[in-house]
Amino acid sequence: MTESAPVATPLDELVETAVDQTGEDPESIRTWLEPFTDDEAVTPAAIEATVTDVSQVLATAETRVDLATRAHESASDAAADVPDLDIVDVRRRAFAERLADLRADVEALGGELGSAADELDSPADVYEAAVDLHEITTGAQEVVRVAHDLETELEAFEAWLTSANRRHDALVDEVESAEESAAAVAETVESLRAADAPEQERWFDATVQTRVLEVAVADLRAEAADLRTWAEGEGVSFPDDIEARIDEVEREAAANAEALADRPSLDARFADRLEALETELAAVSPPVAWARVDEVIAEARAGISGETSGD
């Protein structure tokens, strides 16, 4: 048997050689090669058909990104007609960055597709091409999902820009969410302080939630101020009790933070992560770019549940 991949190679033969060349599991290789297979043989026609299928999935991704781009252009036009406020600018920049990321992803996937099946000089090349094409398909499908979500959010953003009622309702929803979060943390704090040996992970998580809630309060206060200014400029009413409700959330968050500060000595894995989180969040100022904050929170929590206590 030759080391190259001849036209219409029997699947068993190609798998055997690919195993020798790559050291991968034969059943795994066989599974990956399934799209390239026709009547128990890997054929150029089946490979070409697979490339065509992947191209169609990528074309769908490109279309979804185009639709998101149009939604972004429409929202940007709407934003040009509203007051120059931070709460508008931070949203515009976040949407622009997400759209740029999607465009870059589609371009990269196109480049990968262009080279995925260029050189199939050996069974290992054929196997690797099959893996690459699957990954391109998965990546394109993810772009489709993310672009659809972005388009929907951009349409909602445009509606938010053009309706004071929508802006105020969204702010009320955010305040209610903060109130619920503060109440939930308060229950956790009470439970922890009543326990003889409170779990460090629960104490850590409650501290993270409280610190993030403090950031949220600052963000809500800044957003409320901008929205009130906007409402006054348009001559429309603004919810009278919003600032008082934010003040109450701030008081409850402060009480939670004070109670959590009186804690048992934490293992290094918790203490170090809390210190790193504190450093990151200390640099955050309103209006908050929540995508970055979410990343910081995920980093702080990553792997905590599966770790054992430090020495």
Low-confidence segments, given as residue ranges, are: none
Structure annotation, total helices: 10
Distance between the termini: 57 Å
**Relative helix content:** over 70%
β-strand amount:
under 5%
Strand order of the largest sheet: 1-2
Overall average pLDDT: 91
Helix-strand sequence:
EHHEHHHHHHHH
Principal-axis shape: flat
Q: What structural class results from the helix and strand content? A: mainly alpha
Quick one: how many beta strands?
2
Radius of gyration: 27 Å
- Largest sheet properties: 2 strands, antiparallel
Organism: Halorubrum trapanicum
Keywords: Coiled coil
Coiled coil: 161-195
Protein name: Molybdopterin converting factor small subunit
Protein model, in words:
By secondary structure, this protein is mostly helical. 77% of the residues lie in helices and 1% in strands. A two-stranded antiparallel sheet has the order 1-2. This is Molybdopterin converting factor small subunit. Keywords: Coiled coil.
Key terms:
311 residues, Molybdopterin converting factor small subunit, two-stranded antiparallel sheet, 10 helices, coiled coil
Q: Summary?
A:
The chain is an all-alpha fold and 311 residues long. The chain is built from 10 helices and 2 strands, in the order E-H-H-E-H-H-H-H-H-H-H-H. Strands 1-2 form a two-stranded antiparallel ribbon.
